[in-house]
Amino acid sequence: MNVSRGMKAIYAVVFTVCVATLLAAGLHARPDERSEVMKVREEVWRSWFANDRKALEKLIPADTIVISSGNLHWKNQAEVFETAAKFQADGGKLTRLEFPRTEMQIYGDAAIIYSQYVVETEMGGKRSLESGRVTEIFVRRNGQWMNSGWHTDTEK
Fold first, then answer.
1. Which of 26, 50, 77, 134 fits a disulfide with 64 by CB distance 3.0 to 4.6 angstroms?
2. How do residues 109-155 score in pLDDT, each as one tens digit?
3. Is residue 43 one of the residues assigned to a domain?
4. E strand or H helix at 18, and its extent?
5. What is the mean pLDDT of residues 97-114?
6. What pLDDT does residue 45 have?
7. Range of the domain at 108
8. Domain with 142 in it: what CATH number?
9. Residue 19, domain member (yes or no)
10. Is position 14 within any domain?
């Protein structure tokens, strides 16, 4: 079959568009990029429970929005810091953190993580177990992944 130059150009354009579409859909995410986002996610959770303000300031941007199960009020960065400080001031300790199922999508400088979580804490000698689902949004700013928002719901 003899293909004309015009048809070859059309095929090249179609091929380029298909590849660009796949890349834009997040299928290009490198495994090390995924592990980098997962590492930051783990650091955010552990830093909150430890009230590591320095780490939280690096990982949670000022424009953060948080929707939590059972709360009508949506939180911002300052309220995230306040709740972490209160948890620690009340003697709270993280004893277990697990993510039994996690899926991730990466689109350039944005990553979305969907997970099931299990958190066990101890306060005043009493342990509490909470499990649920979380959707987290990460953005890369100046080369650093940050958790710009999340939505949790708890299992009943």
1. 77
2. 999 999 999 999 999 999 999 999 999 999 999 999 999 999 999 87
3. yes
4. helix 5-22
5. 98
6. 98
7. 29-154
8. 3.10.450.50
9. no
10. no
